[in-house]
Specification:
Layout: E1 3-9, H1 15-24, E2 32-40, E3 43-51, E4 65-67, E5 70-78, H2 81-90, H3 100-111, E6 121-129, E7 134-139, E8 148-152, E9 155-159, H4 162-169, H5 177-186, E10 202-204, E11 209-214, E12 219-223
Antiparallel strand pairs: 1-3, 1-9, 2-3, 4-5, 5-6, 6-7, 7-11, 8-9, 8-10, 11-12
């Protein structure tokens, strides 16, 4: 597994906070950690990644991974990346790595937000699209990979783990006691019945869902797949 985290909004996040957050994410990916930041129309974007190297162990596949105004942070695995890579090569794409990371990003170049329709795998990822000034997030069909978020007047925070969001927020999150009580009464089967979590204000991107945020932090979430 890997760890991802990020923020889009008007706040500036200090380098020390970024480093502290990356340190908290190291349990998810000890092999490489890095971050990138962007600014557009007084909106700041931060992308953080902690890598566990599985496919293409070379540094060329480290993240955040950028190409032509697109920057990706990705947790998961695209199982059919070899087949998809061949299809993209036939469409004129070239590749500098052997990773599923680059295949994912080039698929976004080719298919846009519909790229997820071509993926067989498990994932939680975020792409900052500099060309269209939007942040694109996605979670796999059965929510195997975690993707939490918190939104307030200062912006939108997201991460693989809640502790990373709390670190970027720079404040203590409050316990969601109503959710805890329902869990204690109904058990683990209750956990997926609501987008709420054990902390107030923290939600999850739903299974089989994409989400977009523009530079005005307008959040739109939608299903890209439903079980038949």
């Amino acid at each position: 597994m890997c760890g991802i985290a990020g923020y889009i909004g008007k706040q500036q996040i200090s380098k020390s906070t970024i480093n502290k957050t990356l340190h908290l994410m190291k349990n998810r990916g000890p092999d490489f950690q890095d971050s990138q930041s962007f600014n557009v129309n007084d909106t700041n974007v931060y992308l953080l990644h902690s890598r566990l190297s599985i496919i293409d162990l070379e540094v060329r596949s480290n993240q955040p991974f950028s190409f032509n105004g697109l920057t990706l942070i990705f947790n998961g695995e695209i199982y059919n990346y070899i087949e998809l890579r061949k299809k993209l090569i036939k469409k004129g794409h070239t590749f500098a790595t052997r990773s599923d990371t680059e295949v994912l990003l080039k698929a976004y170049v080719e298919y846009g937000e519909d790229c997820v329709q071509h993926f067989n795998g498990m994932w939680a990822f975020a792409i900052w699209d500099e060309n269209n000034k939007k942040l694109f997030l996605s979670r796999d069909r059965f929510a195997e990979k975690p993707l939490y978020y918190f939104q307030d007047n200062d912006g939108f925070y997201f991460a693989s783990e809640i502790k990373a969001i709390q670190s970027l927020l720079h404040k203590q999150l409050k316990v969601n006691y109503d959710y805890m009580k329902r869990y204690l009464v109904y058990g683990y089967k209750f956990l997926q019945k609501t987008p709420q979590t054990f902390f107030q204000g923290i939600s999850e991107i739903d299974f089989a869902s994409n989400a977009t945020l523009d530079s005005n932090i307008n959040f739109i979430q939608y299903k890209y797949w439903q079980p038949k």
